[in-house]
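Support request from a user on the community tier.

User writes: "When I paste my C-alpha cells into the form, the page sometimes reloads and wipes my input. The last time it worked, I copied everything first. Here is what I submitted, just in case something in the input itself triggers the reload:"
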C-alpha cells in the first residue's frame, strides 16, 4: 500500500509538472505571437495630423520615457534610471523632466535622454507628485503630503529661479485614503491653477488663494484663456467635456466605451489622447497588458491608433513644440 501511494504521489507531481511546462510553452508562444504583431506598420492605422506636422510630441512615462517618433512610426525608449523609484507623476517642459526622487527625498530636474539631474527642491520627506510647469517655464506647481499618515496635504508652487516656494491651498483629513488630487494644470496667464480632487474640478488663484468648485470631473486641463477640458466616467463610458469658465457653458465633445486608463488633451485642445489596455502579455499572468494610445480628432470625431507601447500603465504627456 505504501509503495502504491508513493507511486500515485510521484505520478501526481509529474502531472503537475507537465501542466506547468505546457503553460510555460503556450505562454512563450503567445508572447512571441503578440510581439511579432507589434510592428508599427501593422498597428498604426494613420498618423494623426497633429503629430504628422511635428508641432507636438507625445510621451508615456513609467520607469522609462517613451517618446513617439513620427518618422519611424514607433516608440523611442529613453532609459532613465532616475525614474526607477518614482511612480509615474511627472511633468515635461522644453524637454526637461521634473519628478520626485524617493531615495533623496527631493524634487529633481533632468533632461530627457540624460541621467544627470539636479535637485530643485530638497528636504521633501513626504511623497510629492502631480507636477505642472507654468507656460513660461518659471514656476513648478505640485501636490505633496504634509505628514507620514497622509492625513494632510497641499498644493505648492516653486519659483524655479529664486527657489522660493509658497503654499496655494491645503487639505485636511477627508475620510478618503491619501486625499490626493487627480490632476493639476496652470491657467494660461500663470496666475492660477485648476485641479481635480475627489471627482470635482476646482480653481485657485495664486493671489487671493481662494478655492472655487467649477464642476464635476477628472483630469482637468487648461485649453485656452477661458476654456478647460475634463472627463467624467459614466458606466463603461469615458465622456470628455469642455467648459467656458466665464459663461459656464459646458459642451460634450467625445464619448468612448474604450477602457481608458489615462488621458490628455492636445496642446490646443483639438485632440484627445487616451491609453487603452490591450491583450494579455503572458498566459500565466493575464492581468498584465500593454497599452495602445488612441487619438481622437474632436472636430471630425475620427479615431487614430498609435503602435502599442510596452508598458502596462503610465503618465501621458503631450507637449507643444512651441515650448521647445
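"...and here is what came back when it finally went through:"
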Amino acid at each position: 500500500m505504501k509503495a502504491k501511494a508513493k507511486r500515485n504521489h510521484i505520478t501526481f507531481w509529474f502531472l503537475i509538472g507537465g501542466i506547468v511546462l505546457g503553460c510555460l510553452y503556450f505562454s512563450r508562444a503567445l508572447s512571441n505571437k503578440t510581439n511579432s504583431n507589434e510592428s508599427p506598420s501593422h498597428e498604426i492605422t494613420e498618423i494623426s495630423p497633429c503629430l504628422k506636422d511635428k508641432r507636438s510630441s507625445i510621451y508615456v512615462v513609467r520607469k522609462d520615457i517613451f517618446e513617439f517618433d513620427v518618422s519611424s512610426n514607433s516608440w523611442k525608449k529613453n532609459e532613465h534610471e532616475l525614474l526607477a523609484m518614482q511612480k509615474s507623476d511627472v511633468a515635461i517642459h522644453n524637454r526637461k523632466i521634473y519628478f520626485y526622487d524617493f531615495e533623496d527625498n527631493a524634487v529633481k530636474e533632468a533632461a530627457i535622454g540624460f541621467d544627470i539631474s539636479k535637485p530643485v527642491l530638497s528636504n521633501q520627506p513626504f511623497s510629492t507628485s502631480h507636477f505642472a510647469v507654468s507656460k513660461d517655464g518659471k514656476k513648478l506647481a505640485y501636490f505633496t503630503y504634509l505628514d507620514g499618515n497622509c492625513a494632510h496635504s497641499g498644493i505648492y508652487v516653486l519659483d524655479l529661479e529664486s527657489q522660493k516656494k509658497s503654499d496655494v491651498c491645503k487639505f485636511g483629513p477627508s475620510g478618503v485614503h491619501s486625499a490626493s488630487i487627480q490632476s493639476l494644470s496652470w491657467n494660461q496667464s500663470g496666475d492660477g491653477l485648476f485641479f481635480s480632487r475627489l471627482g470635482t474640478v476646482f480653481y485657485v488663484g495664486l493671489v487671493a488663494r481662494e478655492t472655487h468648485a467649477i464642476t464635476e470631473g477628472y483630469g482637468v486641463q487648461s485649453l485656452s484663456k477661458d476654456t478647460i477640458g475634463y472627463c467624467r466616467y459614466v458606466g463603461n463610458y469615458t465622456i470628455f467635456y469642455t467648459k467656458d469658465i466665464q459663461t459656464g457653458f459646458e459642451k460634450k465633445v467625445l464619448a468612448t466605451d474604450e477602457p481608458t486608463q489615462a488621458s490628455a488633451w492636445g496642446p490646443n485642445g483639438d485632440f484627445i489622447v487616451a491609453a487603452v489596455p490591450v491583450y494579455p502579455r503572458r498566459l500565466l499572468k493575464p492581468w498584465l497588458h500593454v497599452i495602445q494610445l488612441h487619438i481622437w480628432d474632436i472636430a471630425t470625431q475620427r479615431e487614430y491608433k498609435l503602435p502599442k507601447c510596452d508598458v502596462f500603465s503610465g503618465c501621458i504627456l503631450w507637449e507643444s513644440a512651441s515650448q521647445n
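Agent notes: The reload is a front-end session timeout and is unrelated to the input. Residues 24-45 have pLDDT under 50 and may be disordered. Residues 24 and 284 are 7 Å apart (CA to CA). Escalated to web team.
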